[in-house]
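Running log. JK asked me to keep both predictions on one page so they can be read side by side. First protein, sequence followed by its C-alpha cells:
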Amino acid sequence: MILTNAPRDTGCIHTVSGLNQTVRTLLEAELPMLWVEGEVSNLSRPSSGHLYFSLKDAHAQIRCALFQNRAFLFRDCPRNGQQVLLRGRVSLYEPRGDYQIIVDYVEEAGHGALQRAYDELRLRLERAGWFAPERKYPLPRFPRQIGVITSPTGAALRDVLATLRRRCPGLPVLIHPVPVQGEGAAARIAQAIQRASQRRDCEVLLLVRGGGSLEDLWAFNEEIVARAIVECSIPVVTGIGHETDVTIADFAADLRAATPTAAAELASPDRLEWLGNVRSLDERLQRAMRQALNRRRPEIDRLREHLSRSQPRRRLQDHNQRLDELEQRLQQASRHRIDQKWLRLVGLEGRLRARTPAIHLREERRHIQALAERLRTATCHRLHTASQQIKILSGSLHALSPLATLDRGFAILRRPADGAILRAREAVVGESVEALLSEGRLLCEIKAISALDSSDSGLSFHR
C-alpha cells in the first residue's frame, strides 16, 4: 500500500453502486443494438423461465441473459455447444459488477450466414445505385388497374383483395400467379414483373406474400428479383412478410409497405376525398408535434435518461436475475445439507445395526446354550459322583447291617411285641421268642437260661 499526503477530492469519490450504475448507463447509451456470434456454454434455466449462458469463441467469452418475456417467442431454445447468432444490447449487472448482453433475438449460425449474405447483397446493390430515391417512380393517385404478383392460394392475396374491395370496390385487379418460395420461385417472380412491365396494362404492381422465416422469404432477396423491379417501367409496391421483415425487394421497390394489406392500402385510392384532407391535417399536426418535440428535446433527453435508470422493467430484470442466483445458491446449500444428513443417517443406521436386539438375543441364546451344556455336564458329573458315594455308603451300611451278621451264622431273638432280647437275663423260661436268621425266622421256646462263660463258644437253645 502506498500512502501519500495528496489532498483528496471528496466530490469525485463514488460508491460501488453509483459507479456500477454510471458504467451501466454509459454502456447502454454508447453501444447500440449489436449482433454477436459464438458458441453457447454454461446454459442454465431456473424455474423463473429466464435463460443464462455464456457466449464464447476461441479466445474469450461474455455472459448473456435471455429473459422469459423474450425466450417464449423462440421455438428452439439455445443448447450447450450450439453455434448461434444473437442480437442484443450491452449492459451491466450491477449487483455483481459483470457486464453482459441482454439478448433480444437468437438464431442458429446458419441463419446468420443467410443474414450476412443478405447484408452483402444489399450493400453491393446500394452502392450500385439500385436503391437511390431519385430512381423510384411516384405512385399514381387514381390508378385505373392494379396488378398483383403473388401466390394464388396464399392468404396475402385474400388480404389484398379484401382491402381493395373495401377501399375502392370498382378498381380492376389483374393477378399474376407465381410461387413465392422454394426452388425457382425467384426466376418466376422476375419473369412476372418483366411481363407486366412489357404489357403495361396496369398502372401499379403489388408484389406481396405472407410472413415467414428468412429462408421462406429468400426468393425476394435474390438479385434477379431486385433487377426486375429496378428495370420495371411500372411503379412497384412491396408488402412482404410482417412489419419486421425487410427484403432486398423492399429496398428496390418504389414503395415498401409493412404488410400485404398495407401495400393494397397505399396503392389504392380512397373513395372519400376528405381522407386526403385528414391526411394533410395529420401531416401538419405531425410537423407541429415534431417542432414542439425539437424545442423540448433537451428536457426529453434528460427525462429519457432518468427513465432508463429507474424504469421498473429493468429493475425487475435485475431482481429476477438476483433471485435466480439466490435460488441456485439455495438449491446447492439444500443439496449439501441433505448430503450431510444422509451421511449421518448412514452412520446411525450402521450403529443401529451393530446394536440391534437380534444380535444380543443371538449372543444370549448362545450363552444360554453354553450354560445348559455346562449344567448337563455338571449334573451328569454330580450324579456320577453321588452314585459312587451311594455305592460306597451302601457297602459301608451293608457291612454294619445286622443282616450281614446273620449271614455269618448269628441270630436275633426278639419278642413279637417288645423288640430284640439283648441279654439272657431279660428272657423268661417258657417264653416264646422269635429267632431271625439270614434266611427266614424260627419260633422258639426258652427251656433254660444260663450265664455265658469263656468256655462257651456260642449259645445253646433247647427246644
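And the second, directly underneath as requested:
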Amino acid sequence: MIGGLIGRKLGMTQVYTREGRLVPVTVIQAGPCAVIATRSAERDGHVAAQVGFAPAKAGTGAFAALREFRLSDGEPPAVGSEVKVADVFKVGERVAVTGVSKGRGTAGVIKRHGFSGFPGSHGTHEYFRHGGSIGNRSFPGRVFKGKRMAGRYGAERVTTRNLEVIGVRPDDHLLLVRGAVPGARGGTVVVRKGPGVRT
C-alpha cells in the first residue's frame, strides 16, 4: 500500500477518545489524491506512486502539489485512480507530518533562539534584548560559523514525527492526529506512515 498522502491543514480542535480522554488534535484534509505516475523496480529501481492533490485554479488538469510515495508492499495503484484517506491510514497508527512552518520575518535572539536577555535593573542601559558577546579577542579573531544571532525565523520545512492517528473520517476525507503539526491553517502538508520517517 502507498506510504502516505498529501493534505491540507484545516486547524486544531479537541475530541474525546474511546476511553473518554479529551485530547487536542489537528484536523487534516488528507486527499483524495490522484495517481499521476508509477515507479517499478525493473525500470526505476524502486516501487512508488506519484500522486497529485488539489487541482489548480486554472482548471487545466494540473495539481497544486505533487509527491512521490514508496510502497511498502504490493503493486502501485493504477494511474488515474484516486487514493483516499481510509485506504492509507487507520486509528492508532503513528505518522509523520511535514509542512512549512509559519514565517515570522526577521526576529531577535530572544524570539528566535530563546535567549534570556539581560537584567531589567541593576545598571542595565538600553541593552535588554540583545545577544551579548559574539566572539573572543585576538584568538580566533572572528565569529564562528553557526553562531546564534538575529535573523530570518520560520518559513522552513519541518517534520513532526510519531503523531498518533486519533480519527479517520472517510466521508469528509479528514484525518485527526494528536498534537500540533507545522504550518498555518490552509497550508499544504505531507502525511507519511511510520513514526520515524525521514523526508
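Observation for JK regarding the second prediction: The CA atoms of residues 52 and 66 lie 5 Å apart.
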